[in-house]
Amino acid sequence: MLDPKTIEIIKSTVPVLEKHGEAITTRFYQLMFGNHPELLNVFNHANQKQGRQQKALASTVYAAAMYIDNLEAILPVVKQIGHKHRSLNIKPEHYPIVGKHLLLAIKDVLGDAATDEIMDAWEKAYQVIADVFIRVEAEMYDQAANQKGGWDGFRNFVVDRKVVESDVITSFYLKPEDQKELATFQPGQYISILLDIEGEEYTHIRQYSLSDAPGKDYYRISVKRETGSDIPDGIVSNYLHDQVKEGDILKVSAPAGDFVLDTTKDTPVVLLSGGVGLTPMMSMLKTIVEIQPERKVTFIHAAQNGNVHALRDEVEELAKLDNVTAYFFYDSPTEEDRKNNRFDVEGYVTREWLKEKVEIEDADFYFCGPVPFMKSINSFLIDLGVSEEKIHYEFFGPMASLV
Fold first, then answer.
1. How big is the CA angle at 21 (ends 70 and 8), to the nearest 5 degrees?
2. Tens digit of each residue's pLDDT (9 = 90 or more) over 268-319
């Protein structure tokens, strides 16, 4: 526990962190990777290049400072980050490295304003914060390894099938190489894939949502090809699309993530997705059909057109069931899309459309997709009076703000 004086000092730095947080975290990553380049084998290079990781860390540090006297208040955030860390194989020995360079970055950015008193307080506070993360993640490691069919770290999986789903999305069906039991997962969770790509200085780890219901003898991920092979995300997705073949081996971590369908409820569910954000929604939709066949579910997907719309046939087949309704939005439909009536609405999902077509009352809403899409959906739902506890969403990558 921290003493009252230390807590007071940390709280006094909150306005400074609000102003300089991103500069501090940007400098933190520069220093840490400069001294420990081996950690580039773990961190997502694309998120670093785009600045998303820096923003996410700044937000976390800011929240930790604000709630330093009540860290239970940020436990949901800790658990969300903990899932990511567990799937990346972040271990307790990494935390002193992070702490050292975070303190160096604070001192470097704030200069003389970072007095010895402030630095001493932050050193104590970081240890308390790190201990919370380490404790939460230890439970997650234990659960992942000791569950039925579970494992620790990365496990070899065979690419059993590779299926082209659209012009930009391909599915990979993965089965354990050892042919032993496969751990189940909650619909909405993801796995991490560890890739050692020839010609790349560092390994790459990417997290992909599981796009089928649990209970199968495989995991399925559906990967979007990122255009522009000069960016790190493009390197990974293009490698998977172009180089990985059926029969190849991929290293996979046990399923993780807290964006999951609540199957203890029987209230209506609305699943909204944009682009490749449909992958966790497919797992949720198929799970409802399999284990809650009386539960009403509305599936709403937005895509550019039919050429890039993946897993369409699966949704259309499920939409024949009494409890499933599906709507497809295309913002740039092709002539073939129009000719074959392959979409329901031309344009984007709007507040007015949701109000008219969707049963708002009592429903739980789950959504995922590009950040602008998610911001719009979140704003619409709030405007329509949907309570916070009924709104659930997932960012692909570091956390961001929907406000």
1. 40
2. 999 999 999 999 999 999 999 999 999 999 999 999 999 999 999 999 999 9
199 is in an annotated binding site: no
59 in a labelled binding site: no
Q: Is 268 annotated as a binding residue?
A: no
In a domain? residue 328: yes
Supply the pLDDT for residue 376.
Answer: 96
Pair 130, 14 in one domain: yes
Residue 402 included in any domain? no
Question: Looking at the structure, do residues 338 and 357 belong to the same domain, yes or no?
Answer: yes
Q: What are phi and psi of 206, to 5 degrees?
A: -130, 145
Annotation marks residue 95 as catalytic: yes
DSSP 8-state class, residue 277: G
Q: Point out the catalytic residue in the list 29, 62, 95, 219.
A: 95
Is residue 319 within 8 Å of 299, Cβ to Cβ?
Answer: yes
Catalytically annotated residue among 22, 29, 137, 330: 137
pTM across the whole model:
0.93
Domain membership of residue 227 as a residue range: 154-253
What average pLDDT does the chain have?
93
Stretch 360-386: mean pLDDT: 95
Is 209 part of any known ligand binding site? yes
**Which of the 8 DSSP states describes residue 98?**
H
